[in-house]
Amino acid sequence: KRHREKRAAAGLQSQWSAPKALRQAVYERDGFACVYCGEKDQRLSLDHRVPEIRGGTHDISNRSEEHTSEL
Question: Containing H/E element for 65?
Fold first, then answer.
């Protein structure tokens, strides 16, 4: 709930899903591997490098894939 309140206060959507083309482009750029440990796994998640709440954008330069446990 706190996360939603912060996003609302910053004038951001409560939730955002990356388009399939953006997701695929990030996965290909990162070699279908976690950017932190390098492991190739099916449990990778697309995340912002700079959080949106801190001014990060949704474009490919600010996205990376990582294990959900490393988020």
Answer: strand 63-67
Q: What is the pTM of this model?
A: 0.65
Residue 55, Cβ density class (10 Å: 0-12 exposed, 13-18 middle, ≥19 buried): exposed
Q: Is the model more confident about 26 or about 41?
A: 26
How far apart (Å, rounded) are the C-alpha atoms in residues 8 and 2?
A: 10
- Determine the pLDDT at residue 31: 92
State phi, psi for 12 to the nearest 5 degrees. Answer: -100, 160
Shortest CA distance to 3 belongs to which of 18, 43, 13? Answer: 13
Section 38-58 average pLDDT: 83
